[in-house]
Design a protein that fits this description.
There is one protein chain. The termini are far apart. The protein is globular and about 60 Å long. It is mostly helical. The chain is 72% helix and 0% strand. It has one domain (14-126). It has 6 helices and no strands.
Length: 127
């Protein structure tokens, strides 16, 4: 797992790298395609894209919902590994900082989306 730019010293132990790869990756779960493009893992997220396209096909869409959800969970579990292997990182801090920024972006956008959903639901109930 030598993803450090050539000429740079790698002072990080393999145990540190393994610890950084363990957490669930919320960017890979929620923003699969954008996350995959930004982290050099777009090819690994292609099956999820296919499942999302199949959501428009009647009768197949029910299967695509469950398969797509399972693949998104799989992407969340393996996302840090895919991202670490997918592109060159300056150091382990650069990698973890990038993934934390993805998680913060997910938290903000999902919170805003849920707020709009509940405001619309409340407005419809009053309506």
């Amino acid at each position: 797992m030598d993803n450090i730019y050539s000429g740079q010293e790698n002072q990080v132990s393999e145990a540190d790298v393994q610890m950084a790869l363990k957490p669930f990756n919320w960017g890979a779960f929620f923003f699969t395609y954008m996350w995959g493009l930004g982290n050099g893992s777009l090819g690994k997220t292609a099956p999820i894209f296919v499942c999302d396209i199949l959501l428009a096909v009647p009768l197949i869409n029910l299967l695509a919902i469950f398969v797509g959800l399972g693949l998104r969970i799989y992407a969340g579990i393996n996302g840090n590994k895919w991202a670490y292997e997918g592109r060159a990182w300056y150091d382990l801090y650069d990698f973890t900082d990038t993934q934390v920024r993805w998680a913060k972006c997910v938290a903000v956008l999902v919170s805003v989306g849920l707020a709009f959903f509940f405001m619309g639901l409340f407005a419809a109930m009053l309506g």
